C-alpha cells in the first residue's frame, strides 16, 4: 500500500501552434476555434489556463510536415494532420504579454539548432516573462526534418543522444556564463558590469566549439526549466540526468506506475534527488456536466473525426518509415518491427495495453493519432478529479500533461468543471505562490557552475 501524499499535482497543458491539438482530428470538432493563425487564439487559451492555476503551457513542435508517408506531404495536408507549425517563440512572446504566472514551454531540437542560439532564445524568454521559461529538449526524429536543413538523413539514435548530451552541457555553461550580481550599473563611475563575473565557456567537444559568454545575463530562474520526454533506454537515462519535468506516453495506469518507479530509480542512480523531478503522463480529459454528456462527446472523438490515412501518415512520421505500401489491417509482425528502427518502443507499449489482441497497423496507428494514444479521464468534474487523485496518491505520477481534444473548449471544460473539484481535494493551489515557474513547481534555483568553482578554489586556498 502506497503512503498517501500531500502536495499539489503539477498541471501542464499540451499545446500545438497549429490547426490541431496533439489529437489530429481536433480541428473537425464543431466548436473548435479556427483562428489559430491569430495571436489572440493562444492568448485566450493561456488566460483560461492561468485561471485554472496550470503550472505550464507547453508547445510541441516538429520541423517538417508529416511527409514520410508516400514520400509526400499530401495526405497530411489533405486531412489536416499537423501540417501547420508556427514559430514557437513568436507565439510565446504573445502569451507572455497576456499572462503573469503561467509557465511558457517550447520544444527546440538539439539536432538542427546550435547551443548558442537555444541558450540565448530561452534566456531571453525567461527575462521577458520574469522567470517563466521552459525548454523541451528533443532529438529530431525523421528524414523529413533533415531534408529541411540540407541533410539527407537524420543522425542514428545513439548519435543523436551523444550530440544532445554535449548540446545541453554547452547550453548550461552559457546560461551560467553571467554570475548573479555581474551587472553593477554604476552611472557615476561608468562601470556597467564586473568582467570577473562574466565568463567565456571555451567549450571544445566532438560536435561543438563555443567560446561564449552568452549575450544575455543570468536569468530570473538561473536556468530555464528543462523538459524531456525520451522513451527509449537512452532517452530515459538522458531525462534522469537533466530533466526537471519528464513527460511520459504510457497507455494505462499499470504501465505508468511501472514507468514511474523505474524512472525515479534512474534519477537516484544519476545522483539527483528523485523527488525534485516531476514525472507527468499525457492524458486526455473529457469533462461533462453529466456522465452521459461526457460519454457522448468521447464517442464522437473516438469514432468520427480522425481519417485512417491521417493516422498512418502520423505513424510514418514518428517511426521514420513509409507505411504507404501497407494495409491498415496488416498484422504487425516481428519482421516489420525488426525492419523499422523507430517502432519497437511504441509496439511494446501498445502490446502491454491491448494484451492478447492481435496488433494491426490500424490499432498501432490509432495509438499515435486518436484518443487511444493516452489514458482517458471521462465523466463529471467530480469523477475526473477522483481518478486523478487515485493516480497521484498511488504514485503513478506527480501530475499530468493534459492533452486537448479540441481548442479552446477542452481546457475551458477542465477549468470550469474539474479544477474546482481538484481544489476541494487540496490537489491544486488556490492561487500562484511563486514569482517564477521554478518557484511554483517547488524547484530550487540551480547553482551557478562558475560561482561554485570560484568558491571551491577559495576554500582550497584558505
TrEMBL record:
Domain of life: Bacteria
Enzyme class: oxidoreductase
InterPro entries with a match to the protein in the record: Diverse_substr_monoxygenases (IPR051260), Luciferase-like_dom (IPR011251), Luciferase-like_sf (IPR036661), NTA_MOA (IPR016215)
Keywords for the protein's UniProt record, in alphabetical order: Flavoprotein, FMN, Monooxygenase, Oxidoreductase
EC number assigned by the record: 1.-.-.-
Domain Luciferase-like residues, every copy: 37-393
Single GO MF annotation: oxidoreductase activity
Matches recorded under SUPFAM superfamilies: Bacterial luciferase-like
One Pfam short name: Bac_luciferase
Gene3D superfamilies given in the database record: Luciferase-like domain (3.20.20.30)
Keyword Flavoprotein on entry: yes
Entries under PANTHER family matching the protein: ALKANESULFONATE MONOOXYGENASE-RELATED, C2H2 FINGER DOMAIN TRANSCRIPTION FACTOR (EUROFUNG)-RELATED
Family affiliation: Belongs to the NtaA/SnaA/DszA monooxygenase family.
Protein name: LLM class flavin-dependent oxidoreductase
Organism: Rhodococcus baikonurensis
Amino acid at each position: 500500500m502506497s503512503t498517501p501524499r500531500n502536495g499539489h499535482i503539477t498541471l501542464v497543458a499540451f499545446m500545438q501552434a497549429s490547426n490541431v491539438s496533439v489529437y489530429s482530428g481536433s480541428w473537425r470538432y464543431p466548436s473548435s476555434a479556427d483562428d489559430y493563425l491569430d495571436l489572440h487564439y493562444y492568448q485566450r487559451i493561456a488566460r483560461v489556463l492561468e485561471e485554472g492555476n496550470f503550472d505550464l503551457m507547453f508547445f510541441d513542435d516538429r520541423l517538417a510536415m508529416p511527409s514520410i508517408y508516400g514520400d509526400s506531404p499530401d495526405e497530411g495536408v489533405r486531412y489536416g494532420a499537423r501540417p501547420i507549425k508556427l514559430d514557437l517563440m513568436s507565439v510565446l512572446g504573445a502569451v507572455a504579454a497576456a499572462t503573469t504566472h503561467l509557465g511558457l514551454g517550447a520544444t527546440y531540437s538539439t539536432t538542427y539548432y546550435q547551443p548558442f542560439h537555444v541558450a540565448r532564445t530561452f534566456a531571453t524568454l525567461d527575462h521577458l516573462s520574469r522567470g517563466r521559461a521552459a525548454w523541451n529538449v528533443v532529438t529530431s526524429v525523421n528524414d523529413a526534418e533533415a531534408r529541411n536543413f540540407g541533410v539527407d538523413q537524420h543522425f542514428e539514435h545513439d548519435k543523436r543522444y551523444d550530440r544532445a548530451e554535449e548540446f545541453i552541457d554547452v547550453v548550461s555553461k552559457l546560461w551560467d556564463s553571467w554570475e548573479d550580481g555581474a551587472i553593477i550599473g554604476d552611472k557615476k563611475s561608468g562601470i556597467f558590469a564586473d568582467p570577473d563575473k562574466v565568463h567565456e565557456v571555451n567549450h571544445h567537444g566532438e560536435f561543438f566549439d563555443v567560446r561564449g559568454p552568452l549575450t544575455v545575463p543570468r536569468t530570473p530562474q538561473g536556468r530555464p526549466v528543462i523538459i524531456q520526454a525520451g522513451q527509449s533506454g537512452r532517452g530515459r537515462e538522458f531525462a534522469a540526468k537533466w530533466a526537471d519535468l519528464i513527460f511520459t506516453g504510457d497507455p494505462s495506469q499499470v504501465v505508468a506506475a511501472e514507468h514511474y518507479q523505474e524512472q525515479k530509480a534512474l534519477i537516484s542512480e544519476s545522483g539527483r534527488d528523485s523527488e525534485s523531478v516531476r514525472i507527468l503522463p499525457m492524458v486526455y480529459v473529457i469533462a461533462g456536466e453529466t456522465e452521459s454528456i461526457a460519454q457522448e462527446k468521447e464517442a464522437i472523438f473516438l469514432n468520427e473525426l480522425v481519417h485512417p490515412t491521417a493516422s498512418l501518415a502520423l505513424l510514418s512520421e514518428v517511426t521514420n518509415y513509409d507505411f504507404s505500401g501497407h494495409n491498415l489491417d496488416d498484422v504487425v509482425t516481428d519482421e516489420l518491427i525488426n525492419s523499422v528502427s523507430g517502432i519497437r518502443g511504441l509496439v511494446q507499449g501498445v502490446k502491454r495495453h491491448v494484451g492478447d489482441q492481435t496488433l494491426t497497423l490500424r490499432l498501432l496507428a490509432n495509438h499515435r493519432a486518436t484518443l487511444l494514444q493516452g489514458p482517458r479521464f471521462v465523466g463529471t468534474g467530480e469523477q475526473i478529479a477522483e481518478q486523478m487523485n487515485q493516480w497521484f496518491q498511488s504514485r503513478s505520477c506527480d501530475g499530468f500533461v493534459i492533452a486537448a481534444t479540441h481548442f479552446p473548449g477542452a481546457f475551458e471544460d477542465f477549468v470550469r468543471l474539474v479544477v474546482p473539484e481538484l481544489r476541494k481535494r487540496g490537489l491544486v493551489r488556490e492561487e500562484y505562490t511563486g514569482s517564477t515557474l521554478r518557484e511554483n513547481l517547488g524547484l530550487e534555483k540551480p547553482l551557478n557552475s562558475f560561482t561554485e568553482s570560484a568558491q571551491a578554489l577559495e576554500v582550497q586556498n584558505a
